[in-house]
From TrEMBL:
Pfam families: DHQ_synthase (PF01761), DHQS_C (PF24621). Keywords: Cobalt, Lyase, Metal-binding, NAD, Nucleotide-binding, Zinc. This is 3-dehydroquinate synthase. Its cofactor is Zn(2+); NAD(+); Co(2+). The lineage of its organism: Bacteria, Pseudomonadati, Bacteroidota, Flavobacteriia, Flavobacteriales. NCBIfam families: aroB (TIGR01357).
Amino acid sequence: MSNMAAKGPVYYQEDGFLKINTYLKESKPSKVFILVDNNTHRECLPAFLQKIDTSENFEILEIEAGEINKNLETCTGVWNALSELDADRKSLIINVGGGVVTDLGGFVASIFKRGISYINVPTSLLAMVDASVGGKTGVDLGNLKNQIGVINHAEMVVIDPAFLATLPQAEMRSGLAEILKHALISSEAYWNKVTNLSELTLDDLDDIIKESVEIKSKVVTEDPQENGLRKTLNYGHTLGHAIESYFLTHPEKTTLLHGEAIAVGMILATYLSKELQEFPEEKLKEITSKILDIYERVEFIKEDIQQIIDLMKYDKKNSHGNINFVLLKDIGDSVIDCKVPNELIWNAFEYYKKT
């Protein structure tokens, strides 16, 4: 059994809450801290606490919701609170929230006193299928996403789709983008399944989440440090992250959710795949129209595109000054470390605007 599979196992629903209860009994943390944001404090924490049977006093730590607060300043606030509340090496942090809470909470735990244990309880679709699997923790540096962080696995991840009942529609769509990405890098069958959304029920969603988590876990297990295969999980993210960062820091622009930016990034990456890897044109058209059925088109002007291209050089996947793209030869057949000339990126934006 690989280290990854042994570390950070994923459990579902009731089974997961039982596992947390067992963990609390057996490992007897000195103190238990629950990290939430103002939304999950209100919407998710009460349901979570009902499932946890222990006589311990939990300390609830709350941060402000939103990507804009995913920074070192917020971490410092949490570290100070932990210190004041006498957290020690044997304390445990349980992160109950979306990707910002699980990324930041995992990072806070990994660094505090050189590392304390943490558990993730993702409450958004995005965090369930992406942020809480694979041990990536971190925060943003100014407008540059996830520049500060470490890979350090949670003791466990507990996924309960019941939390999704509290999620706004836009946040559900944002999470769906990562599921679409998992589909594009894994198989046509899974792509067809997840794009026939009109027929999806919550039960289907349970299965789709499990399948999506499995796709990601399998990749991460084979390549925990992102030397090769794990890079395929960045499909659509090289441009997508730059778009997200750009819109985040230009107050005159509407802020995009992560998945909304990644949706654009996937269309651009698929266009680049057609140009550079002979990805089939009819599949490019199909993918474009399916994504645009779900996500509203984003407007870009020339200056936006230039600045987005400039932002890409900060992407963590780059090395030696080269911007590295993941492209597809076909659905489920990816190529990593592709160099893409800037003029093709401009063409990709033209294609996005015109379709």
